[in-house]
Amino acid sequence: MAGTKDQLDAAKAELAKVQAELDRATARWNEAESRLDTTRAEIAGTRARIGRLEDRVRAIETRLNRRAVIAFTNGPASTIDLLLSSGSFTDFTDRLEFLGSMAQEDRDLILGQEVVREELRREHDNLLDLEERQADVAQELDAIKESIDAQLGRISDRVAELTEKYREEIAASRELAILGQTPDPDGSLQVCPVAGPNSFVDSFGWPRDGHTHQGIDLIAPFGTPVVAAHPGNVSHSSSSSGGISANVYGSGGYSFYAHLSGYSGASGSVGAGTVIGYVGSTGNAGSTNHLHFEWHPGGGAAVDPYLMLLAVC
Fold first, then answer.
1. Mind giving me the DSSP string for 237-250?
2. Would you call 236 helix, strand, or coil by DSSP?
3. What is the CA radius of gyration of the chain?
4. Which of 111, 126, 115 is CA-nearest to residue 50?
5. Where are the beta strands (DSSP E) in the chain?
6. Are the C-beta atoms of 212 and 198 separated by less than 8 Å?
7. Which residue in 84, 127, 144, 275 could disulfide with 264, CB within 3.0 to 4.6 Å?
């Protein structure tokens, strides 16, 4: 057993090193996701401003066209006739002032049109810059995802190798230790909601698509079992944002599990550690497989579960 222990210690050190690399990649992924959401919001705002400016340009052009039609219809002689038909000097000066104000209004319209067109040009340039930034961040996310997938693969392969090699010698608790998971039967969250290699950072409250992030994203390989983090009753739901989702309602509150690839056969009352689904990327999860996890103590608003997850994952 001494040799086995030495091999296990070496394997745990190896896994810890890979896990640290994975956690750094996960932090970069969360930061890039936030930048992408912010850029998307800026693009939407810029497009809205462009729409309003285009409406203003069309309105000014309509007024200028209408003034041009009037001028063409009446002709320059009508202006002289209007002045010569004045009944008095006062009437003459009033008509002259009126004609001057019309000319000034035309000049103001033309100037206003030039100003709005310049604003429109700048907004179009800004939109191009934002779309280029969005493409760069999306490319960065793809590269990070490849790195995460490779590191998760290294961890998964090594854990599978060790589990098979020492199946008869390693108890279930020992296997959990290799994975970095330490069950806490007395905590609000008793087990890690991802039963396998995973990585997460404290992204609670970060910007996400027009709102703040109300949970923690645990990145894990596709199909990794998702388990009830505490005892309770499981229910299923789905939405365009959360995709395939589940809730577990317990005595101390409820937990929410989103972006699942599918459900297990568990229903009704479940214990801590019962498989309720599998990691995926449904809903608005993007292309990176992960579990979005929320904790709602007492059934109220979500609170940051980062420290509780650190204790069990």
1. EEETTTEEEEEEEE
2. strand
3. 33
4. 126
5. 207-208, 211-212, 216-219, 225-227, 232-239, 243-250, 253-263, 268-270, 275-279, 290-297
6. no
7. 275
In angstroms, the Cα distances linking 242 to 120, 215, 228, 238, 281 are 37, 12, 17, 6, 9
Q: Which two tokens stand for residue 255?
A: 């937990």
Average pLDDT over the chain, rounded to whole?
Answer: 76
- Asked whether residue 26 carries a pLDDT value surpassing 90, the answer given is no
DSSP secondary-structure letter at 194?
B
Residue 166 to residue 159: CA distance in whole angstroms? 11
Residue 4: C-alpha distances to residues 15, 134, 167, 182 (Å): 16, 50, 12, 21
| Residue 309: pLDDT band with limits 50, 70, 90 | very high
Confidence of residue 103 (pLDDT cuts 50, 70, 90): low
What are 135-192's pLDDT values in tens digits?
Answer: 887 788 777 777 777 777 766 666 656 555 555 454 444 444 444 455 666 678 999 9
- Evaluate whether 223 touches 149 at the Cβ level (below 8 Å): no
Q: What is the pLDDT of residues 203-232, one digit of tens each?
A: 888 767 667 888 999 988 888 899 999 999
How do the domains of the chain map onto residue ranges? Answer: 1-180, 181-313
CATH H-level superfamily of 181-313 = Glucose Permease (Domain IIA) (2.70.70.10)
CB 190 within 8 A of CB 312: yes
**Domain 1-180: CATH class, spelled out:** mainly alpha
Amino acid at 220: A
CA angle 142, 36, 247 (to 5 degrees): 85
Beta bridge partners of 216: 293
- Asked if 215 and 52 touch (Cβ cutoff 8 Å), the reply is no
CB atoms under 10 Å from CB of 187, counted, come to 15
